[in-house]
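Thread: "does anyone have the structure for this chain?"

Original post by V.I.:
We have the sequence but no experimental structure in hand. Need at least a predicted one for the grant figures.
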Amino acid sequence: MIRNRTDLKYYLKMDRIALKRKKRSLNYILKEFFIPDYIYQFQKALRKTEYYFNMRSNPFYSFLFILSYFRYKRLSVKCGFSIPLNVFGPGLAIVHLGTIVVNPLAKVGSNCRIHVCTNIGASGGLAAAPQIGDNVYIAPGVKIYGGITVADNIAFAANAAVNDNCLESNMLYGGVPAKKICPINIKNLLKHIVDE
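Reply from O.Q.:
Generated one for you, tokens below.
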């Protein structure tokens, strides 16, 4: 969760690295003017709105939250993303424009790479939503639902339906319902992860 200006800078930096976007330069500014990168704009708006939302006890930040919220919602509709505040950790990489729906009660750790037509939500009218660890790759069409737990360093194959806990790290899950397929090295899918 973004609690201060340092956190905001860190989240923005990690998202930029995960998306493989270069630092601002004259070429970048000109390209953005003629061919906007709506995904990156959305992610920046998401992070700034999270920051202002979490700081809104200060009246000045409440005002900035309202301004930022309208930009975030407009970009959300334009991109097809229904991503609530304070769900994703740093290093989020949304790969394509298109439908992504996430429950506000879900939690996703750092370095998540998520593709189009993905749903992370509750099940059967219950409030519980998935709690997903760090370094998770979510391929196109994956549905993750229910009060389940997903461990760190996991990949989901395209169109997987995940309705049970995935507690074994370094594993590829796929199918309907999702089952273990084979061991993987998550760094082959999330290239920006470095050893700490």
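V.I.: this helps a lot. Residues 59-79 form the longest helix (21 residues).
O.Q.: and The CA atoms of residues 10 and 159 lie 32 Å apart.
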